Amino acid sequence: MHTEASSHDIERRLTNLLPSEALEDHAEDVGVVEREGKLQIPPLVWSFAFGFAAGESRTLAAFRRTYNSTADESLSPGGFYQRLTPTLAEYLRDLVEYGFDEVAVPHTVSEEFDRFRDVIIADGTVLRLHELLSEEYKARHEEQAGAKLHLLHNVTDQTVEHFSVTDEKAHDSTLFNTGSWLEGRLAIFDLAYFKYRRFALIDENDGYFVSRLKKSANPVVTEELREWRGRAIPLEGEKIFDVVDDLSRKYIDVEVEVEFDRREYAGTQSRDTKRLRVVGVRNEDADDYHLYITNLSREEFLPADLATIYRCRWEVELLFRELKTQYELDEFDTTKKHIVEILLHAALLSLIVSRDLLGLVIEHADNG
User: Whole-model pTM?
Assistant: First the structure.
């Protein structure tokens, strides 16, 4: 049986993902083109998507050549450039949002996740831009420009639930909103999202979280959740980072009490406390501990389980690495803000298309 994906299969797959008529209708709706205009939207969209996937230089001239090779009428350099507008950037963003809802991104779901409705990973990565964009995309250092791409990756559904682009100075933490949508979901955070109030709200919305423990937080231990034989150092009443260097046990498993400010209401702000769990897994090579804070129970998740769960964060790290290496996401040599946005959304669209084609290959392999 012939199981390889044919060119016809590929074309049908891509036209099902982004039908030409739908591309044209939405372009007209948002004002990218007029119905009688010379610009052909499907060749333009595919020139950006395949321009990134092909691996050639990400210059506007290269994208124009790709467009002219498939469009009915060629565009001059000036004609092509004048059509690269802020409206086109918004249009491509719409396509990326649609594509992320439809197409899988890399993931590996372990058995530990079966009990959760979804597993969510929030993360961001910095993209270095031309210094002349420093007013539009403020960086942490003067005389630099930097954008930040934020992703909310649903590992269970294999989708990106939300993405946004800000300047580099915008804190990742402000892009993650708590609420009832977290019920039954597990959120995995790095230190950029560390906030006791956030953890309390996730718990109060019947959600779950695992985060690295921030050293400056240093919560007080209220109870040890694991008994140790012999003359083990007692931890109750101690601040965790004050004693961790004196420990040699393989695991730490304790309850801690944390303090945080509630959101201001009617001009007043109250102080509150929450009891959470801190787990440490000894790293013998570095002679220290990886410390995590969570609301997952010891009855269901041992310390080693939490370390395994946290390693799932590598899924989104690998996704960022692919965008920066394969699609050269942070090598946009342009001084125009909307051109940056067009190229960024084109790179994400290229990732979506490559994932859709990978799905086609896997389907044919399974049928073999």
Answer: 0.76
